[in-house]
Request: fold
Amino acid sequence: MPIAAKVLNKHPNEYSFGNGDNPIIITLGLPFSWEILYFMALSFGIATFIYSYKCPDLLKKFSSWDKFNEKGLGKKQLLVYFSNWLRNYGQIREAGGKVVPQIKAVNTVAKKFCSTLPPHLKDIKEAWYLSKYLPINK
Reply:
């Protein structure tokens, strides 16, 4: 960007074409300063980096539930994504920013979407493993 600014500063800002009463005037300039353009581009780059680093793969790959279903995926595969996310990244936060223990988050999912938790799953203490095998209601 600084190179483009220097090149354009060496040339006049306006070019006039045509003779007579109605010349065509072309203005080579931005409606804002080069500094603002630079900081906008820098901010966009930082935002892109944060998105690529922090956004879960599921959200990067599928923009909606319909796109997820179009690929033939369903609730079971969603649990696998959730399980892998818990295992690899591991932090779940409430809206206020407070960290929620993984097992509490998995139990919340189980209470909302499972009719009963089979006895053999009740003894599992690792949240990511338990989340993978939750019997989700259809």
